[in-house]
Amino acid sequence: MTSRALRAALALTALCSVVSPPPARADSACYLGTCDAGTCGRSWSGFSTLIDAADYPDGANTPVAFIDPADGLRHRFVATQEGKIWVWDGDTGSLSTTPFLNLAPKALFAGERGLLAMAVDPDYATTGEFYVFYIGEGDAPGEDGDIVIARYGRSATDPDLADPDSAETILVVAHHIDDNHNGGWLAFGHDGMLYVSLGDGGGGCDDHGESQEPNGQNTAALLGKLLRLDVRGVDPAATAPECDLVFGAYGIPLGNPYAGETAGCGEVWASGLRNPFRFSFDRDTGDLWLGDVGEASWEEINFLGFDYYPLAPDGAVNFGWKCREGCETLTCSADDCPEFLTDTGEASACVFPNNVDPGAGTTNYWDPVLCHRNGGSGVRWQAIIGGYRYRGARIPELAGRYLYTDTFCDQLWITTGIVEGDPAATTSACLHGFPDKSFVYSFAEDHLGELYLLFGSGTIQCLHGEGGGCYWADWGGLFEDDFESESNDTSRWSLTVVEP
Q1: Most buried of the four, 148, 204, 310, 316, by CB within 10 Å?
Q2: Is-contact 309 234, C-beta < 8 A?
Q3: Torsion angle of the four alpha carbons 368, 374, 379, 382, in this order, in degrees rounded to the nearest 10
Q4: Tens digit of each residue's pLDDT (9 = 90 or more) over 221-258
Q5: pLDDT, tens digit, for every residue of 360-389?
């Protein structure tokens, strides 16, 4: 069975099964500490620079995604916020002078805008297809500032070039009132579907004036949501698009909570998000880990198990914003929130999966499994960056741990305990303090499950254990020519490599 057929079978089998109930409610781990220098408690030396800030051919040097296309070639793609996607050549250890794709004429780059995400088709080696998430201007579809999701194909003659004429708009989401809170990530789940995270539309407290209603709690809007789209024809029962501005080449897959419902957009998988900048799927379990940037109280790491399908109305996942932020209710106004909510003026406990549970038929808000206080004195968390659960083989001490950080906090955190089947038992601790103003923008994961950090300065670093260096980072696959001889280190041959 091909990988695409296998994914399709798994997805349809899961969606036709009995919906799993939410896990038992329990207190989540929330941290009140600042991130001032010296508060980490320990430091880890397992970083090496793969791409330096001076390596970029021109000013497009703010990396947002580092992509391993898993096509058996010794290259990687570096998507930059400025709109250019570069090719890193593993043979030379350098970036190409010609972009893989130049989206700068289409992408509006300023502040939180630009090219924000890139994801390759799970069968990229065969299809050559990939997807981009950018804020459009110029000849891009929609109005300037709108969110554009598009599909491209690689060149038929050169694997280090995309075909710019292959562009196909998947959807356009109106976002031209405010310039922030775009969200900005793409990832394929284990079910073969493309997941897209969108911010609430900008401003503060999801308030856009008279021109637009709040988005987070409005299931008839796409902003402030996690979308689930069938862009690959995995689900033969998928239905037509409902709420995008451009009816593109995707379907609404079976199991989406509002599919076919007049009360909500069929594209929506989960609601109540403020600015979900980064999320990932556990490559072993398919579980979702999502970082959501907070307003004035809490930075969140949210969790949704692969076996939970958020069927509407009672089972639809609502992460709470703007009615609930982390561990607090009504940190903003009560507009657009249920009447039963009250503002106690103080933080309550975070309880996973839901804390506000007034009874059947009313809104249940899913609390995060991890959260950090972002208000008060001292250097606080400001913009959480969700990472990955480590499933590689080169750092045994990190096996199974989830890593995350904050753009302004300059600390790398890891989970110290994950209890399978009991997400609320997740705890974490600081692993490493970065130099002041390091500005981590993103994590990346390669086809071996190894992890990387992307910095706003342009630097991309690999994480590694003893021995140092990023010697595996350009490895295409098993028995690649010269890999063993170039390493000249037989101790590395004993490492277990699990191909996805």
Answers
A1: 148
A2: no
A3: 80
A4: 999 999 999 999 999 999 999 998 887 789 999 999 99
A5: 556 778 999 999 999 878 889 999 999 999
